[in-house]
Amino acid sequence: MNVCIITLGCKVNTYESESLKEAFERAGYKIIDDEKKADVIVINTCTVTNQADAKSRKLIRSARRNNKDALLCVCGCSAQHNKGAWIDLDIDILMGNGSKLKLVDYVKNYKNEKIRDFIDIRTSTFENMNINNFEERTRGFVKIQDGCNNFCSYCIIPFVRGNIRSKDIDTAEEEINCLANNGYQEIVLTGIHTGSYGDGEDFDLVDLIRRVSKNPNLKRIRISSIEITELDEKFMDELKNNSKLCDHMHVPIQAGSNHVLKLMNRKYNLEEYKAKINELRSIRPDINITTDLIVGFPEETDEDFEDSLKTAREVGFSKIHTFPYSLRDGTKAATLKQVNDTVKTNRTKRMLELSDELESVYYKKFIGKTIPVLVEANNQGMSSNYIKVHLDTLCDHNTFVNVLITDVDGTNVKGHVIK
Q1: Helices (H), 165-269
Q2: Which residues contact 273 (CB under 8 A, 6 or more apart)?
């Protein structure tokens, strides 16, 4: 039987879908990309914004309309969040988070009776998934953590992903070494709140990094995202001494105004954030700092937004992943005074324009410099500091080449391969 898995949302969802693919293949199913030819359709949903919810619903309706005879399975964050609203949709197997691997058995044993499976996500344990390969990828993603206990006032994720919990360090090390030994020279450590890995256990993120760094086949270790509050002395020492850690940190700021940060229930102020970024740059002067930032947050004034623009310039982010605030029912921010949609759209446009400007400025620093690049396609590759470089020579996939950066056109970087 043919199985088509459609994935929405973050790197954690991508990882979980890859794990599902391997589980279905082990059970004798064939993974295909064309849902119209599938016997089983799995939609792994996202609920981070209203738009993500809407896209999830649209895909569900489209899948059922285009393939009436397929077994339709829906799982993930939007399913968890909307289980009451979706319970009567024409979905054969509907489940949330925390036990996705049960889906394979549900499909195998399906008896034409609809299945609904939702666990208590706030008290669930870590669901041990693993992967051996990522199809057509150079970087291997490994989910080491799930859940969040921060309860930022705008965020629905703690309610759909549950409490902080971590993959056992021995299990994580084994999976990472397996991928590295299968040819993945860069591993991306990912989770909902990756930097909290090991919280409540006798190990932490740095312990895992130190262990897997001993594998000679692993050349790079990248962290998908880390909170400013998790850049402690132990982590900073590791960054100083471990050359396998990439020259790129994605550190969400969410707002460049102390007033808005307080409304968001973030656990730091701007002064603390800036001081920690300065410490990062004292260790790695050319490090690439990217971030997430929400504009149009409830009660954000014009002055607050101007402060965010000013902060972004002062910090010198190289990319600002900008999100217009999306109201989520059940969160504290939903009860606050909302910003006009037109104002929100205009602010988003200005922040994105600044992001493009800062990205170009950062890239231009490397013109005339030679940097190692890991080839991800025949004519492009990724540097340690997360610069995608278009190469002037076709190179073998998954090899390291030295590249002279020759030109930057906006956010497009070109390089000459040094033979």
Answers
A1: 169-181, 205-212, 233-241, 258-264
A2: 228, 251, 253, 315
* Other Cβ atoms within 10 Å of 285 Cβ, number: 8
Q: Print burial letters for 207-241: b (CB count within 10 Å at least 16), e (below 16).
A: bbbebbeebeebbbbbbbbbbbebbeeebbebbee
- Residue 9, token pair as written in the block: 């949302």
Q: What is the C-alpha separation between 50 and 52, in angstroms, rounded? A: 5
Q: Which DSSP category does 4 fall into?
A: E
- In sequence order, what are the residues at sequence separation of 6 or more whose Cβ sits closer than 8 angstroms to the Cβ of residue 132? 22, 178, 179, 182
**Residue 292 three-state SS:** strand
Model confidence at 136, pLDDT cuts 50, 70, 90, reads low
The residues near 386 (Cβ < 8 Å, ≥ 6 apart) are 222, 246, 247, 248, 288, 290
Q: Which amino acid is located at 387 in the chain?
A: I
CB atoms within 10 A of CB 354: 18
Mean pLDDT of 387-395: 96
Angle between helix 233-241 and 205-212 (nearest 10): 20
From the list 342, 321, 263, 268, the residue with the least C-alpha distance to 297 is: 263
Centroid of chain to Cα 77: 14
Which pair of structure tokens corresponds to residue 199?
Answer: 């919280």
In this predicted model, what pLDDT tens digit does every residue of 298-334 receive, in sequence order? 999 999 999 999 999 999 999 999 999 999 888 999 9
In this prediction, residue 89 has a pLDDT band, given cuts at 50, 70 and 90, of confident
pLDDT digits (tens, 9 = 90+) for 254-283: 999 999 999 999 999 999 999 999 999 999
Q: Which two tokens stand for residue 168?
A: 């056992």
How much is the pLDDT for 387?
A: 97
- pTM score: 0.93
Cβ atoms 142, 120 nearer than 8 A: no
CA–CA gap between residue 335 and residue 340 (Å, rounded): 15
